[in-house]
Amino acid sequence: MPTSDNGLKLVNSFIEETGIEKMSLAAKYGVAKNVMNDILSGHLQSPKAHQVILKIIDDFKLR
Q1: Architecture of 5-59 per CATH?
Q2: In whole angstroms, how far apart are CA 46 and each of 4, 7, 16, 21, 51?
């Protein structure tokens, strides 16, 4: 399975720069708070985690 390290860094930088709460992202994407924390910390590397990262990148047009 490919890693999403670059995408994860991009999303975490975006969160840091904008001050968006991780819990708000969890609510928006229908993911449990602890699961969102695991995704954004890189501890969870499942296909679902990769989909969430890609969806955040697409929705916020991060490049």
Answers
A1: Orthogonal Bundle (1.10)
A2: 10, 14, 23, 22, 9
